[in-house]
Amino acid sequence: MREFFSESQDGPVLVQRRAELVDHLIERLWLDHIAAEEYGPQGLTLAAIGGYGRRQLFPYSDIDLLFIATDATTEGAHRAEIRKLSQNLWDIGLRASATTRTLAECERISEENPEFTLSLLDRRYIAGDFALFEELDLERIPDLVERRRSQLFAAIAQLTRARHAKYQRTLFHLEPNVKDGLGGLRDFHTCAWLNQLLPESARYSASRYEKDLLVERQDDSALAHQFLITVRSFLHYRSQRDDNMLYWQAQDEAAKLRLGVSSVRSRLADKRPADTAGWMRQYFRHARSIEWLTRQMLDEIPSGRLAVMDQIRQWRSRTVLSGCPVADGKISLKTVAEYSDPDRVLTLFQMIAEQPLQLTREAEGHLSDSLALLAERLPEGAALWDRVRRILLGTEVASALRVMHALGILELILPEFHGVDALVVRDAYHRYTVDEHTFLILENLHALAQPNNEWETGFASILREVEEPELLYLAALLHDTGKARSEGSHTDQSMWIADAVCERWRLTPTQRETVSRLIRNHLEMSLALRKDIFDAETIRMFADLVGTPNNLRLLTLLTYADIHSVNPEALTPWKAENLWRLYMATSNYLDRNVDEDRIQEDADTAAVQQVIALSPGNSVAIHHFLAGLPQRYLRTRSPAEILTHWQLASQLSSTSSSALLTRAGAWWDCTLITHDRPFLFADAAGALTAWGMDILKADAFSNAAGIVIDHFRFLDRYETLALNPAETERFQKSMTDVASGLVDVEKLLAARAHSARTQNHKTRVETRLSVDNTSSTHSTILQVITQDTPGLLRRLSLVLAQQKCDISVALIDTEGEVAIDVFYLTKGSGSNSTSSPGNQTENAKLDPEFLDHLQKVLADALQMSAASR
Question: What is the side-by-side strand order in the sheet with 805-815?
């Protein structure tokens, strides 16, 4: 038989022939030790159960035998003969697993051992009292199933889910277990048991199990079943024991043999080198079809007859989400035609990404049949990115993407992902295939919404501060796509793929740079953890790499989720703590050094050269524009944005200003470029307040020539600009007029004051002021934490101007109803201009006595503002 398998690789025939051979051996032993007459002795019979009962006896599997006696007396009378027969099987090298039960014991379900009852579902007569076996087969077991169907369903579901949990509920392990893992043989047998327990009219045809394995329906699950039988037989012969783990060495040997995927003749003719990764893809695709069937059947287990009130509750649970009918946690579309409508299909998956829902079996079938039409009608460019973005933001996005991937829809949207489908990349660290590792990253990122421990709470706080989190999720989705390519590093290849995807989906240059930078550096934080994170030089070098606080947040979160998704033990508490310490140390460094490093006139860094490369003929003018700006300006702007700023600055007259307005998701960005003047920052903030805008973030920079670049990110609460496109031109003109000093901001604010509504705060924030005169060599750092209110930034800026403080850099942030404003201040001439580094003196910091006075004035102003509300 081993020679037959070596030549034919026909696992199904092998295991059936082994079962038939053992049948003959046991029949002879029965005649020798139990009874010489046919169908004797009366009151004792022998049945094959489990895998042997299914006629699937693998080379080194146990032989599951059940001796059934009419009663305990009969059992006792034949105990010695039964022991002798079992011993003979062991003596000739067969692993007999024999159990003796009375007929009455077979019709009871043991709470401690429900597996025994399930093994009876695969019963088969071998020898002994045939009438007794028929009573068990045709009366007792069917009666047990009828009486305890719900209990048996529950036992199967509990055992299966516990087994799946052992394998982290995924089949995509780099070294899978072909028997007990998800999508393995045990799952196929689970489907067969569930099918047998269903009433005849409700049988699930795709998993119908015939007594003769060779006449199974040739559907995907049946073909997968035959493939896995062949693989398990190979593993048994290879290790000469009941070993069901598909280790790397076994994968190489199976791939070399092209096991289960080609005929003997084609294997002999095929001279190509073995493709282990390709063979493993075949394995995972087969396993996926069985896992899919298992999940569907488990989800559709009937819950028994419902009480009237339960039926009413179930009926009431039916609902419709965005036009998609939902019942019992299953979602679908209303009509068959909708399954070829990309807009409806993407809405369907958006719902699955936003809530724990599953597709109905019918919906899966319709989607599979509609792939060709969907491919023709799929939206393109920014429209497609908008739909993908909504899916990525859903807390259940990993589940949605797994379904889209299995059905082929993800590859329609993102063809580049096909390369990592079930891709095995071997190392001692990773446990999952590349696609499953990617889905786990997204799952672990969204899981931070409900942290389970202290360090998860910390990383969750970082996620809440991230700007445009969809870019983080997109980078996570694409960060390993380059592993499908053999040339170059996978990071470089992934960046190339990501750039192409971002261009195709029409992301803005800034968004593309964010995704590209994140993928480029996605291994750097892990590498930094291998160094001394308490060394100041380590922190400085890492801070130079990430550049900005938002880049740091994004990279920290991707690193956290990437490590967490490698294998369940990868993110140890020690590693999580070190990752958090590295984040905090770098964050503090970036905050302290925001105005430390200024760009020199002759700077020739890579960042400067990227800007000049866009306009090579203006190298001298660009250098002059950049001189005196903080390095943070280079790090937080794309080369294209900086070039635009230079072009606008070069067109300024002595009294003019320019304003750039762009929309970025839910908020707007306004950048003012003008000459420095008194009260500039305060007036700009006041103009935004007068327009009814909520300022979320702001920063201010100035170069050595006195050109100011003030940036404000704001929320258009009343959608004035979105609903009235013509208003954008009026808004920009208003901002430039204010920046140029042509409009009195106080009049604008007064005109709005009568229509302003009183704001009801959900929480009260205590005002806290703090100053730091040591972290920066240039400036005094003032931090204001207080209740976020309309016009707050304007009021703070006015006080600073009245106290003759110049703002070197302003970092404005809002977290819910908490305003966190940080100002880098220097001694000024009484204006609230953005101070130019060329005008600072050696003693530009504020002295301690003045700082005490300044804090008191600010506190009084904030208190008066609160009282007036």
Answer: 657-664, 667-675, 707-715, 694-702, 805-815, 818-827, 780-787, 768-772
